[in-house]
C-alpha cells in the first residue's frame, strides 16, 4: 500500500465523521433559519454574557489584558471572568476576527460541535483499527448532537469539556496500559483552563472512568490498581497543577455566597427530579426549560437500541454489564439527589441550567453502544433479542408517557419509531449487499433524527438578531467617533443589546452581568442608586446625578431626554450623547477617608456623607421633602410637598412589593414601572412649594408606604464640589487595563478612587509601595508620602496569581522530568530485550 493510501485510510474515518456532523448541523441550522441561513443568532439564554466577554477576549492585543477589565462593574478581576466564561483555546478566533464578532461567535460554536465529533471518533479509533467507518462516524455524530450539546450549544465555554472528555478517556486507558501520561495530563489541564467549572466535573468523571477501565481491564483488579493508581493520581495532580495559574486566582475571586458547605448541602437534601423525567431525555424532542430542565442525556434512538441490546446479548460478559449498570445508576442517583447533584456542581448554588454534568452519562451510553457494535460485527443479534429490545423500549416509553407526558414530543416519538423499524430491517436482512445499503439508510436516518431533535429543542427559543448587533455596533462606533476622547474615563448608556455591553463594545461602565462579579460592590452600588439584581448591575436614567458624577461617568448615551443639565454633544439613530461636566476622575484627592454604618444611613444620606468627605463641605446635596400618607378608598397614595427646587427622587426599599406607581400633580403625569432591583427612582424637576400625588399599585400586602421617602438633589452643590476636585493638578493615563499611572501635585495626601476595593491592587508612589485601604465601605484608597510631586502607579494582579503561576511552572517541570524518566525506562527495557 502506498504512503498516500495509508494516510487516506487513517484520515477517512475523520473525514466521514466531519461530513456527517456537518450535514446534520446544516440541516438543523437551515430548518431553524439560524446564521448563516437567517437573521437568528445561535445565541440565547445567557449567550449575551459570553458574547460580551468573548469580545473582551478578542481585544487583548490592545490595552486590555487578562488581569483586569474596566468593562466589569466599575472594573474587576478579568482573569476570574475569563476563566469562568471564555478561556478556551478556540477563542483565539475572537482575536483574529474581532471586527466580525457575529461570524467569530458562530464559527467557534460550530467548530466545537465538529471537534467534539472528531474527538469521539479518535476515542473509538484508539480501541481498534479503521474498520466499521460508517458506524464510528454515526456514533461520533450522535456524540456531537447529544441533547446536552444542542440545548447548551450557546454556552460555548462548556463545550471544551465535551471535546476533551474522549481524549481524557483514552489518556486514562494509556495510564492503565503503562504508557505515557501526556494525553491525560494535557486534556485535563486544558479542560480546567478552558472552564474550571466543567473541569471540576470532569475531575469527578475522570475518577469514575478510571475505575470503570480498571474493572474492565485484563488481569486482577488489585494488580491493576497497584500498577496504575499512583501514576493516575500523579498525572491528575500535574494536570490540575498546570492550570493553577488560572484555577487559584479564579477560585479566590469567586463570590463567597455562591459556595456551600457539605453540611449545608446535607441539610437541604431532597429529590430534584423523577425517573420518568430522566428517561424522557432518551427520546427525540424532549421538552425543557432553562429553569426546570430535566437531565439532558439524549444520544438518539440508534444508540439507545444498541444500549438495550448490550444488556440483552448473552455474549457480552456479566462483568461488563454490571460495571456499566453501576455507572448508569450513579448518574441516576446524582440527578435525583440534591446533595450529590450539588457536589457535582462544585458545592455551589445552582441557578438554572441544571445537571450540567449530564454529558458524562451520554458519553457512557455511547461507549456502551460501541461495545455492542464490537460484538455485532461478528454475529447479528437474533430476532428474539430485537423483539426484547423493542418491548423494553415500549415499556420505557409507556412509563414516561404515564409519569412525564409534559416532557415528550409526539412527532419526535414518531421519528423514533420509524428509526427503530429501519434498524430492525437492517439487522434482519441476510443479503450482505442489501444490508450494507440499509445500513447507509440507517445512518442517514440517524442524521435526520439528530437534526430533528435539535429543531424540536430550539424551535420555540427566542434568539437574538444578527442585524440588531450590527445596528448597535454601528451606533457605538458613531458615538465613540463623536466623543473623540482618548483620556481615561467612564461612560454608560440607558439601553442595551445584552447584559455585558461594556465588554462587548469596549468602554468603561457600570453595566455588567457575570457570575464572578463582586457581590459586595454590587450591593453597595444599589445604595448609590444603581440598579442591581443577582449578579447584574445596570445603568438607568434613575441613577442620581450625584452618583454619576462621583463614579466618573463623563459621557452618557440615552434614548430619553436628559434633564440633568448635561451638555448635548451629538446624536445618531435616535440616541443622544451627553457630556457630564460634573464628573470626577476615577482617582482624586479627598479631605478624609471614611467608612459608614450602612444600616444607619439611607441611600441619599450616604451620598451626602460621601460628598462631604471629599472637600469637607458640609452642605447637603440631598434634602428631604414632606411626605404624607393620603391613602383613601382602597387606593395606596402618598402626597409629596417639595421643600427645595431641584431634581426629585423617590426612595423605595427593595423589600417592598409593588407593580408600578403613578405620579400626578404640578401639571404633570407619569407612570413608572416598579422593579425591586432598584431603590431610587427619578421623578422629575420640581420647584419649591409644588405638590404631587403618587399612587401605588401593589402585588400583595407586603409593602409599607411609610418606609418610602422623597429627596431633592441640588446640582449646584455637586458642581461646586466637582470643580474643587477637577481644578487639582492631576492626570491619569491607562498603560493597560491593569496598569494606571497618575501624576499629581497637590496639598491633600489622601487619594480616593471609585475602583472597587481588591487586594490584588498594588500602589506605588515615586517607586515606593504604599498600603491600600478601603474607603466609603467599597472603594480602593491610599495615603501618599510627603512630597511635592507624585508619580503614582497602580498595578493589578489577581490574588493567588503569583503562587498559582509557580505551581504551574513546577507542574510542567514535573511532567517533563516524568516523561524523560519514562522514556529512559522504555529504552532500557528494549535494550534488555535485544540483549
Automatic annotation (TrEMBL):
Signal peptide segment: none
Transmembrane segments: 12-32, 109-127, 133-151, 182-212, 232-252, 295-312, 324-344, 356-373, 385-402, 408-427, 439-458, 807-826
Keywords: Membrane, Transmembrane, Transmembrane helix
Protein name (Swiss-Prot/TrEMBL): YfhO family protein
Amino acid at each position: 500500500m502506498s504512503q498516500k493510501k495509508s494516510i487516506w485510510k487513517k484520515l477517512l474515518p475523520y473525514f466521514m465523521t466531519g461530513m456527517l456532523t456537518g450535514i446534520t448541523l446544516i440541516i438543523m441550522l437551515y430548518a431553524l433559519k439560524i446564521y448563516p441561513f437567517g437573521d437568528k443568532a445561535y445565541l440565547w439564554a445567557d449567550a449575551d454574557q459570553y458574547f460580551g466577554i468573548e469580545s473582551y477576549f478578542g481585544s487583548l492585543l490592545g490595552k486590555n489584558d487578562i488581569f483586569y477589565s474596566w468593562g466589569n462593574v466599575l472594573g474587576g478581576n478579568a482573569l476570574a471572568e475569563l476563566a469562568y466564561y471564555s478561556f478556551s483555546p478556540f477563542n483565539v478566533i475572537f482575536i483574529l476576527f474581532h471586527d466580525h464578532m457575529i461570524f467569530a461567535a458562530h464559527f467557534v460554536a460550530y467548530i466545537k460541535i465538529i471537534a467534539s465529533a472528531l474527538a469521539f471518533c479518535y476515542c473509538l479509533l484508539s480501541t481498534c483499527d479503521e474498520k466499521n467507518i460508517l458506524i464510528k462516524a454515526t456514533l461520533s455524530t450522535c456524540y456531537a448532537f447529544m441533547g446536552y450539546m444542542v440545548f447548551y450549544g450557546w454556552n460555548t465555554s462548556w463545550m471544551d469539556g465535551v471535546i476533551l472528555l474522549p481524549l481524557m478517556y483514552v489518556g486514562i486507558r494509556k495510564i492503565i496500559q503503562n504508557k505515557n501520561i501526556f494525553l491525560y495530563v494535557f486534556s485535563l489541564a486544558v479542560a480546567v483552563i478552558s472552564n474550571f467549572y466543567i473541569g471540576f466535573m470532569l475531575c469527578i468523571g475522570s475518577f469514575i472512568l478510571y475505575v470503570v477501565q480498571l474493572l474492565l481491564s485484563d488481569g486482577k483488579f488489585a494488580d491493576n490498581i497497584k500498577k496504575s493508581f499512583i501514576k493516575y493520581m500523579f498525572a491528575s495532580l500535574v494536570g490540575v497543577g498546570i492550570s493553577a495559574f488560572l484555577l487559584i486566582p479564579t477560585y479566590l475571586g469567586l463570590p463567597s455566597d455562591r459556595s456551600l458547605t457539605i453540611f449545608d448541602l446535607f441539610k437541604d437534601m431532597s429529590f430534584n427530579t423523577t425517573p420518568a423525567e430522566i428517561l424522557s431525555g432518551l427520546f427525540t424532542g424532549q421538552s425543557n426549560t432553562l429553569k426546570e430542565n430535566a437531565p439532558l442525556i439524549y444520544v438518539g434512538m440508534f444508540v439507545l437500541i444498541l444500549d438495550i441490546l448490550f444488556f440483552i446479548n448473552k455474549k457480552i460478559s456479566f462483568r461488563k454489564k454490571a460495571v456499566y449498570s453501576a455507572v448508569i445508576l450513579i448518574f441516576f442517583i446524582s440527578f435525583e439527589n440534591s446533595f450529590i447533584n450539588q457536589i457535582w456542581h462544585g458545592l455551589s448554588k445552582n441557578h438554572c441550567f441544571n445537571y450540567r454534568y449530564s454529558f458524562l452519562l451520554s458519553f457512557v451510553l455511547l461507549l456502551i453502544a460501541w461495545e455492542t457494535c464490537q460484538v455485532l460485527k461478528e454475529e447479528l443479534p437474533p430476532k428474539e433479542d430485537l423483539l426484547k429490545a423493542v418491548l423494553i423500549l415500549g415499556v420505557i416509553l409507556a412509563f414516561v408517557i404515564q409519569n412525564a407526558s409534559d416532557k415528550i414530543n409526539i412527532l419526535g416519538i414518531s421519528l423514533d419509531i420509524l428509526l427503530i423499524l429501519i434498524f430492525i430491517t437492517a439487522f434482519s436482512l441476510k443479503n450482505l449487499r442489501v444490508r450494507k445499503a440499509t445500513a447507509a439508510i440507517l445512518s442517514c436516518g440517524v442524521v435526520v433524527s439528530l437534526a430533528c431533535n435539535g429543531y424540536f429543542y430550539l424551535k420555540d427559543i427566542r434568539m437574538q438578531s444578527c442585524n440588531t448587533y450590527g445596528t448597535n455596533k454601528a451606533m457605538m462606533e458613531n458615538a465613540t467617533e463623536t466623543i473623540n476622547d482618548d483620556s481615561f474615563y467612564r461612560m454608560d448608556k440607558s439601553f442595551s443589546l445584552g447584559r455585558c455591553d461594556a465588554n462587548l463594545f469596549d468602554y468603561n461602565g457600570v453595566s455588567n452581568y457575570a457570575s464572578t462579579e463582586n457581590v459586595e460592590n454590587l450591593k453597595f452600588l444599589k445604595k448609590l442608586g444603581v440598579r442591581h439584581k443577582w449578579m447584574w448591575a445596570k445603568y438607568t436614567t434613575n441613577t442620581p446625578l450625584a452618583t454619576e458624577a462621583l463614579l466618573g461617568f463623563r459621557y452618557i448615551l440615552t434614548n430619553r431626554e436628559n434633564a440633568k443639565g448635561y451638555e448635548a454633544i451629538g446624536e445618531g439613530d435616535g440616541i443622544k450623547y451627553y457630556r457630564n461636566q460634573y464628573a470626577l476622575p476615577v482617582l482624586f484627592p479627598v479631605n478624609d477617608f471614611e467608612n459608614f454604618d450602612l444600616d444607619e444611613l439611607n441611600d441619599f444620606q450616604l451620598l451626602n456623607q460621601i460628598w462631604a468627605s471629599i472637600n469637607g463641605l458640609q452642605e447637603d446635596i440631598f434634602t428631604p421633602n414632606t411626605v404624607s400618607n393620603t391613602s383613601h378608598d382602597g387606593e395606596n397614595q402618598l402626597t409629596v410637598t417639595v421643600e427645595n427646587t431641584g431634581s426629585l427622587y423617590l426612595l423605595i426599599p427593595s423589600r417592598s412589593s409593588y407593580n408600578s406607581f403613578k405620579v400626578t400633580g404640578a401639571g404633570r403625569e407619569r407612570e413608572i414601572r416598579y422593579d425591586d432591583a432598584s431603590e431610587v427612582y427619578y421623578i422629575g424637576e420640581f420647584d419649591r412649594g409644588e405638590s404631587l400625588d403618587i399612587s401605588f399599585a401593589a402585588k400583595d400586602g407586603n409593602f409599607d408606604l411609610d418606609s418610602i421617602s422623597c429627596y431633592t438633589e441640588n446640582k449646584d452643590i455637586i458642581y461646586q464640589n466637582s470643580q474643587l476636585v477637577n481644578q487639582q493638578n492631576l492626570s491619569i493615563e491607562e498603560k493597560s487595563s491593569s496598569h494606571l499611572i497618575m501624576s499629581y501635585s497637590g496639598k491633600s495626601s489622601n487619594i480616593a478612587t471609585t475602583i472597587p476595593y481588591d487586594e490584588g491592587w498594588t500602589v506605588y508612589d515615586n517607586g515606593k509601595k504604599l498600603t491600600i485601604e478601603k474607603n466609603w465601605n467599597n472603594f480602593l484608597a491610599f495615603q501618599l508620602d510627603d512630597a511635592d510631586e507624585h508619580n503614582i502607579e497602580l498595578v493589578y494582579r489577581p490574588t493567588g496569581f503569583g503562587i498559582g503561576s509557580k505551581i504551574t511552572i513546577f507542574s510542567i517541570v514535573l511532567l517533563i522530568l516524568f516523561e524523560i524518566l519514562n522514556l529512559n525506562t522504555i529504552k532500557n527495557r528494549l535494550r534488555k530485550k535485544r540483549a
